[in-house]
Each structure stands twice: as C-alpha cells, then as structure tokens.
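Final report, section 2: Outcomes. Of the targets proposed, Multifunctional fusion protein is the one most frequently requested by collaborating groups, and we therefore present its record in full.
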Amino acid sequence: MKPLRTRVVVYGLIILLGLLSALPSFLPQSTAQKLPNWYTNNSLALGLDLQGGSHLLFSLDSEVLIEDEYTTLADELRRELRRSGIAPPEVVISPQGLTIEPTNPDRLAEIRQVVQTLDQPVRDGLPSLDTETSAKNLTVQFTAPHRDQLIDGAIEQSLEIVRLRLNETGLVEPSVTRQGSDGILVQMPGLADPSEIRSLLGTTAKLTFHWIADHRTPEGSQTLRVASEQGTQPYRVEKRELLGGKHVVDAEMAFSPDTGQPVVHFRLDGVGADIFAAATRDNIGRALAIVLDEKVITAPVIRGLIGGGSGEISGDFTPSEAARLALLLRAGALPAPLDVIEERSVGPELGSDSLAAGLVTGLLGAALVVAFMVGIYGRWGLIACVGLGVNVVLVFAILSVLGATLTLPGIAGIILSIGMAVDANILINERIREETRKGRPAFLALTEGFRRAYGTILDSNLTTLIAVSLLFLFGSGPVRGFAVTIGIGLVTSLFTAISVTRLLMEWQVRRHRNQPLVIGGLGFLDRLSDRGVNVMRGRVLGVVLSAVLSLASIGLFIHPGLRYGIDFTGGVAAEVTTETRTVSDLRQGLAEQGLGQASIQSFGEDGRVLVRLAQGDALQLSVDQPVEALKSAIAEVAPDAEFSRVELVGPKVSGHFSDATILAILLAGAGMLCYLWVRFEYHFALAATLTIGLDLTKTLGFFALTGVEFNLTAVAALLALIGYSINDKVVVFDRVRETLRQTPDKPLLQVLNESISSTLTRTTFTSVTTFLALLPMAVAGGHAVASFALPMLFGIVIGTSSSILIAAPILYGLGQRRFRNGLAQLRPTREELQKQLDLIP
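The predicted structure is given below as tokens.
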C-alpha cells in the first residue's frame, strides 16, 4: 500500500484532471468563447432528444447497385466479344447475375475464356467472377468478396456525396456516419422537419445525356423509353450514353436572358468537353435528351457545335428547383439510391423539456441517495457521497474526452450508475461493521473490510458489465449511449470505492486515532442479521410461488401480449399537440381519410396526442413518404396541430431490433453463466441464471399487465435489470462461498441461512438507494423514459426478493444433488490442492 501522502497526490491529480475535462460541458457560452478552442472542444454534445433535431438512417439499395454493375459488365463483355470476332449473344441481366445464351452453343467455351479475361482479382487475390456453364448458357455472378467490396466502396462514396450535399445546405454541424454494412446515419441538430433534407439525400441525381432515337435507330435492344419530367409522352432514346454526370465539374443556377426562366449552367471536364464538342458537331439537327434519374428533363435540338465544355439545362423549373438541381450536380450522383429506413425528429421545445426533466429528476435522485446514506451511516455515509460525487465528475470527464453525445437514456444511465455505485460503498461499510463487531481495532477493521469486500465488488461489477457490453454491441443510437454511461459509471465507481473512499476513511481513522471505528446502521436490521433469518424454511413455497407468477407472466405475454413500440413493429408515430380537436375528433377525421386503423391516445398535458400507424398501413398510405402523408392527414383534421416528435421505423430496422434483442438477452445469460462457473462452481452459476430467468419473465408480465410500451428503452431496462439482479445474487453467493471455505463441514442449509442473514442489510440498503435514485425519473421523467424507469423500479423489487427467497433455495436443491453424487460444493483452491499433493507419499 502506498503512503497516504502519495495517494493523496495521485488521486488528487486524477480528480483535478477529471474536473478540468468535465468543465467545458457546463461553462456558459460567454465564458467558453474566451477560452482556447482546443479546450472548449473537449465537451459533451447534447443528443437530438435533448436539443431537438432530426435523425435519418438511410440504407443503400444494394440490389440496384449490383444490377448496375452487372449492366456495366455486360457492356464490357459485348465489346470484348466483338474484338474477339464473336457475335454478341443475348445477355439477360438481373440482380442475381448475367445469363449468356449464344445462338451457337458450341462457342460457349470461347465466351467463357473472354469472361475470364474480365475477372479482376479483389482483395487477397480472390476472383471477382464466378462462372457456371450448362449445355445452352453461361451464368456469371460476382463472388461474395467482390459484392462486399462493391457495397463497401459505394457506401464510402455515398458518405462523401451526402456530406457535400449537406454542406451546401448550410446546416449547422450535421453529423454523417456509417452504420452497419450498408447504412448511413445523418443527424441534424435543430432541424425539426427533415422533409427537404430527406428528399435531397434520397435523390440519386444520376445525370446522363442520350440522343433521341430517330429513323436511323430502329426499335430493339439498342433503345429504351424514358418518361418525361413534365408527364408528356415518353421519349425513345438511344440506350448508349453520350455523356455521364461524372464529367460535370460545376453547376449553378442562373436566369435565361431570353426567357427570364431559371436554368442550370454546367461545366464539363476536359474529357467531357471533347466528347460533347465532337458529338454536337456531328449531330446538328438531332435532339439530345438530358436524363436525370430516369426522367427526361429537357430534349433540346442541337443547332450547332457546342464547344468550351459548358452547357445549359432548361426546363419548367422554379428558382428553388433549379438551385437544388445545381447542388445535386455539383455534389455528384449517388452510386445507388438511398432509402430512408428510420426517421426520428424532435421539436426544440420537447427537447428542452426533456433536458430539464432529465436534470431535475437526476438531481432529485442524487439528493435522495445522499440523504439516505448520511441518515444511515453519518459521516461515513457522507464520505461515500463524496466518492459518488467524484464518480459523477469522472463519468462526465470520460464522456467529454470520448466526444460522446448525452441523450435522455444516457442521463438515465448516469442516474442508475449512481444507484449501483452506492452498492460498493454499502458493501464496504457493512464489511467494516462486521470486523468492528468482532473486536478488531479501527485501522485493522478498515483494512480487513476493504479486503473482504474487494472480490465481491469485482465479481458483481464484471457480471453487470457483461450485460452492458452486449447492450452496446446490439443496441442502437441512444441505447448505446445508455450502455456507455453505465459501463463508464461501473468502472469509475470501482476506482472511487476502493481508492478515493478508502483514502478518505483512512484519513478519518488516523485523525481520530484513539476513537473506535463506529459505523451506524438500522438497529432492527442488525438485530435481524445477528439473530438469523430462517429463509430456507419456506424454500419450497417461495420457489413454487415464483414459478406460478412466472407462468402467469408468460400467459400475459401470450395474451394480451406486449404493447410493442414501433422499434419492433415498424411504422410511423407522431406526437401531436392540438387545442381544437379531441381524440375522438382526430379518430373520426382520420377514419374519413381511410386511416381508421390508426392508434390514437392522449397522454401528458391536455391536447397532447400520440398517433401511431402500423408498418403495413403506413406503406399503404405512402410507399415513399409515409411521414409526410400522415402529417398531412392529421393537419387536414387539425390545422393547428404541432408535431413535437415524429418517428419512422422501416421493416428492415424493426426486424433487426427484434433479432438483436433476443440474441442480446440470450448472450447475456450465457456470458454470466460462464463467468460465474469460472469464479464459483457450475451449480452456483446455474442457480443464478435460473433465478434471472424467473425475474425476466415477471418483468415481461409487468409490461403486459401495465401496458407500458415495449421499445428499445425497455430492452435497455431488461439488460440493466439482468446486471443489477445478478449483482445482488453474486453478493449472497460470495458470502456462501466464503462460509463454505471457512467451515466446509457445516450443513449447506445452515450456510445459506447465515449467508442471507449476514448480507440482509447490504441487500436492503442497496435496493433502497437504487430505488430512490430512479424514483424521481419514474414519477416525473416523462414519456421518453417511462419504458425504462417504471420496469426498473419493478425489477429492483423482484430482483431483491429473488436474491433472498429464490436463488438460495435453487442453489440448495442443486447443491444437494451434487452432495448425493459425491461432489464437493466448491472446487479446491490452489492452497488446498498443494496440501493434497503434499500428503501424497
């Protein structure tokens, strides 16, 4: 152990660095402007749910991308076949590959050889094409590594184009990041209505120039029909591109001097200018179609050579449409369409309300925890609260250094981490009290209490981190933020409990050297623990009752079932405020517009209504713009409607959430089972896992019975509950293991009763402090965190009771089975093994 003075300096520097790192996040803007940018940039950003804004998740249409690549491959193949003196065969193109059907099957081998010349190896020298030959045709497909490489390249290109387009709009600090293998996440603070941005980013903007087909180009595979932007007769154009948008280097909106109408001037690069000049020189009198996203914008007749590498696009444009087209051309075309699969927007007023609610409930929760700890433990409780304060500072410091974004679930995570951090302090205090009651002097009681508590704290925190890490891996957006704050809070609480709190307690002991170390508590709990609680007497009744409640919960899960949020069902949800229309008015008005299937319910303040439309109904309303269609329908019924929050979740996202949730819970159970098996023994791990299963089923029954919405925040609550509940059980099991080591011949039933009795105070106090920390959020946190706070409160009660009444009886049954099989309750320690080896002659 380092000297006290050294530890004071080291820990003081760590806390000072933490304060300096966290400070920029709380400085007023006027003060922050006077400080260096390198310092003030080290601050937390507020999530969209706290400041308002929009969140769009796009998915690259990989089928279109791959089909376009197959089309390019088919064109290259035809050119190579002509060079080889082989008449180009019929080529059928689909997203699945090319099917080549020559008129003369005898030439299949030659065609295959030409195909092989087009096979350009991808990463690690793997082939890019996979060919299969049958009696009459040849099938060519991209290999899996080549498909992945194409999609990866398209996503990276799309990211740059999206950034360019957003930068042109002048939005304040938009965030564009890659998500998953084919997703692009765009977050725009302060933008409550993302309709224009959605349209801008969802437009492919593929610009091509084609000659209008005339008598020299007969109908057939060399021509295609393209719709007109104005809705007139479609144009028959040559399939071959004269020029592509990749040659456009600049574009800007202007007004035609002849007509005064808005037009778009564009400028080509050197290659494009040469192609354009030669083509217009040789085709005077022909019409040239300018095609944007498979629609002809205009088709002017070429009157003479157009040199200089510039041109003009005219059409029936408004100034804003011409400016938008110029922006798209400057930024370039997307390699494939981007489809909106998730959209969430929060108005600035709702965001500020959420921030205020989160801060107020967080401060109230912390105040309740401080009051409880000081009321129970006196000055030792005050020391624990100082450690908690340092813990919160370090959490904010690490989040600031990481450049994290603080969301409402993140605030919930910090509040929960405060409640769980108290556990280590309570465990330490109770261990020190035990040592003091044994008659140990103050400093020795302090040292021994920390030593005995350390292993339990480590085990309980690591098991909780397993659940939190899975929440981070399988979560998304704000749920990940919740996982990060919980994870950081657990790590920092471990440091503050065994370092800062210990330092302060040692200082107090040295300061009052001649006084005994007295830590207060609740007298009746102390007497109950000393006298012993025969919990195991009702073990059969407890397990049977728990099983019955779990079976009833499973029944509720089947019917009426959970009230799933759109995170799992997909669809559109809108939070609406209207003072002129009631719920029945909205329901009747939407029914008249064919939306009778919409779910409408009031909540919160007067006039606030939640309107939800399931996935299938939303797609029937509008395949492309279901959000705008629903908002228009609501505005038709209630013209004064204000939309404080709008969410869209597509089937691809909702399906992923469902699969990820099930997988995360299963992996959390498996991870904890493995960890406890390694640290304890198999039957300890199995007893804890079975008890957690019973806790989870009851919590799902709570969701079904109360109708609390089951969404991603609810999943966070379930995984946090797993971590919290296993934390409780580890403390009891750690005491069981300790007692078995000290008195291996003592009956297991007696060991379990004594272990539960000796940890009863700790279990009760930890549950009360965590309950108090979350209580203000559950009462006044609002709709956004109700799916987290309410089930967590229920889970704390269930988890605490199961730690006392259920886990030990299950462990007893499994332990008795091991006893009958002649197996020890614990694997021998290294010292015990060494003694056994020493006894061998």
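The chain has three domains: 207-333, 347-560+655-829, 571-649.
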